[in-house]
Amino acid sequence: MSQSPQQPRSAAAKPELIDSFGRTVRDLRISVTDRCNFRCTYCMPEEGMQWLPRTDVLTYEEIVRVARICVERFGVDGIRLTGGEPTVRAHLPVLIEKLAALTVPADADSPRAGRPIDLALTTNGATLALVAHDLKRAGLARINVSLDTLDREKFQRMTKRDELDSVLEGIAVAQEVGFAPVKVNAVVQRGVNDDEILALATFGRDNNIEVRFIEFMPLDAQGGWLNDSVVGQDEIVSTIHHTYPLEQLPSRGAAPADRWRYLDGRGTVGVIPTVTKPFCGDCDRVRLTADGQFRTCLFATDEFDVRALLRGGDRDDAGSEGATDDAIEALLRRAVGEKWAGHNIGQVSFVRPRRSMSQIGG
Questions:
Q1: I want to staple 344 with a disulfide (CB 3.0 to 4.6 A). Which of 61, 93, 161, 350 is the partner?
Q2: What is the pLDDT of residue 1?
Q3: 231: domain range?
């Protein structure tokens, strides 16, 4: 299938994508695969997962095309690659090299105007030691590693895999090859790993890593989420502060994590309070699933089919199959125009997404 030629932007156009609540989109999360080498209990079932047919998954060329439109036409300045587990996708450095070459327009209202995008990746770290150097060389700027426990038996229960040593090695190698900072994401569940909050914080302090604790969200594949399972931000911070005194840093703005610094100078720690203190009012993120569905919220119940335009739709001016960049831009603008005010978790109006975390992209 031939790719549609790039459509020139109007000289008068200012790159921005603003929803009906005045929030400007700056961050694009791209899931490169729904497949994963773990079976984390809050993300997917242990068995019976129905993977996408490979023909349904966007090609690297299709991903780059959508990313280019978002960067060049909307001024998106940050892209994060997710999964599933992104490192199980073959030849991932090829995609990273292409995305790292994207430059934020000089007229964008962004601190990165005229500079390359901020390109990051979230991984479970199991194979990170094997690919960290290649990812860095390809142009990846930042890495977040998901690690919910430092206890081997608990790790195996939570992930259904005995890979704790591999993850710890991956974190160390990522630091060795120059990723800075390396962050660790830890989902906290009451009665599962809430007894390790302090241990994980200590791990971060000892290894120059910012640990970011994430409140347990209703995206588990089993559908067993209960509000009682949520360990809230205030409890997490209090637990750490009792041993390691903290001072909160300035407002996070559009960033998902509230952050604190240790008063003894041993780094920082963060909490993503999606449930107890949602940051919907400042959200600047949109998402592209592995099968080419555009989502304006992690908890969205509606999706917009970008893949259909990429692979069919109207014909471009040259007669090639596939919609023009203008048509794709119009779809993305319409989707963002319909973005809701917030997810309403914990309220009677909350509707659970039909897809689990691994199918949406973390």
A1: 350
A2: 42
A3: 27-360
